């Protein structure tokens, strides 16, 4: 936001006052769009969910007691504020189930993110170093799987990984194994599913930062006697760090709340927060408790990321 | 940089679809039913006969349907929840009473079924039965014979006896991921009241299920159809019609997989799928006309012949294929019928105990 103002400032310096005001207005308009987006698609839904998390279940439509309505006017609203209670949040602390589910989800998402990075980095690097003429084709190939349904692609993995599936048939036929591998319905299958599904989210930001890299830097390093691996760790990797961070966030955040992949590929023993939320919402019909689970999940995810961003901004300022 | 990278991926990854819904002047009925649950020619015939256009949409779990109904304004005119869920939905005020004067075909209904559905919908004021069935055991005949030395399963013992189930572990056992279907079966096997809401009884059922838990490959409510049909597993606790579907798919595939279904002799749970009209349905008259059409003996018989479930329409039985009508797994004989039980809906507190117990059984936590 401040970047836009800073880059726009020099051009307006020589302009007349009305023109300056007009550009300022256009600039503000440009900023407003993402903020409106956040307001309507993040803040408003969040407030609704938060409001439900403070109510109690009831057998009615919708299945919870109304809280904080404007039915009785402003005074009724403030009377409601005084009656607010956080029972549903204390409930979450009374059963280790929720804590365990959060931890399992974070661990699974963390491991998957690292695996995705390991798989995605060489792909992105290869794309960025490929001749410029075939780069659009390569980019297309990464995006192409998005054109088939996500669900169908995950289903296809069942056919590949099951005991009588494609993978085992190939391995058995080549004599590499004598007993079919049990992969389906295990954590391994979940990792495979997440890495496969989220790979483009990792490759695209990595590619965008690697592509912009100045390769004469590497040549310079080699001229000065730096071995290729050293040049990679000293130059390429640090320069691609913004892409690494963006890719990891794009994979990690949705992976924490992942529901479909563990349901289809994972075993029944996998307890992730998505399934816990499903149980509260659908099996127990307890919209308030499930809303509380969702609010906590959001806090668990956003607070560390906010701290991280702040730390980064500070580091950047110090770098200057 | 990070922001730019995020934007690039966000813009390339997301496609927003806007669907524009138009208003038709023709008469329309919006039906929301289970997937794979009707012979589609019935819908065409209905439109031909009445001129009412049918917008047919499907779901695959009661929970999804219930959430849409509880949120309100679903836009559906006819929905088909299971009776267990229907009962609570009636309490929540989701449905409207059916105008019986618009349903002359109701005289065709079968009292054996109506008596039981009245437990969920007193007086059958809000709903009409579509199909019903049982929760039992589906199995791969050859694989079970190889493992246990018998090709006939007739008791819950094969599942709840750890020694027997251990022998089936390697060829694969699936269980419905549905506590309201499996916990009553455990109670019944233990000789307790399947309707029990006592925490002690539920704890006993949990103990019985935990003993066999190590031998269960997966808890899932739909995957077992394909898994049985492909010969990936040899035993599943499942819904009757789903197992019949697996049986037919296996026959069509001609891979030598033979699937059978058993209603255990100790007794099995009966379930009912009921047609009902939401309180806020936009086309009530058309909805009633649709429900009445579905109670025509020839029509519902055609549906039963296709989906392989028994229906609650007595007059339709003369039009049902003999093989289906005489199959005790679909239409149980009188003696088995006596042993079938129904389970009343749980109060919220018991529901929470049941769900928590279930999570413990399934995940070990």
- Cα distance spanning the termini of chain A: 19 Å
Biggest β-sheet of chain A: count, sense, barrel?
Answer: none
What's the architecture of chain A, going by CATH?
Orthogonal Bundle
Number of helices of chain A: 14
| Shape descriptor of chain A | globular
Provide the CATH topology of the largest domain in chain B. D-Maltodextrin-Binding Protein, domain 2
Strand content of chain B: 5-15%
What is the number of beta strands of chain B? Answer: 9
CATH class category label of chain A: Mainly Alpha
Determine the CATH topology of chain A.
MetI-like fold
Helix content of chain B: 40-55%
Main β sheet profile of chain B = 6 strands, mixed
Q: Calculate the mean pLDDT score of chain B and round it.
A: 90
Radius of gyration of chain A: 25 Å
**Span of the ends, CA to CA of chain B:** 43 Å
Biggest interface found: A-B, 46 and 45 residues
The CATH superfamily label of the largest domain in chain B reads Periplasmic binding protein-like II
Question: Helix and strand layout, with pairings?
Answer:
The complex is a heterodimer of chains A (320) and B (365).
Chain A (H helix, E strand, L loop, with lengths): L1 H12 L3 H37 L19 H11 L3 H8 L1 H34 L5 H9 L6 H12 L4 H8 L13 H25 L4 H8 L4 H29 L3 H6 L7 H11 L3 H33 L1
Chain B lengths: L1 H12 L14 E7 L5 H11 L2 E7 L2 H10 L6 E2 L3 H9 L19 H7 L9 E14 H8 L8 H4 L1 H7 L4 E3 L3 H11 L9 H14 L5 E2 L3 H7 L5 E5 H14 L5 E4 L6 E8 L7 H11 L2 H11 L14 H4 L8 H6 L8 H16 L2
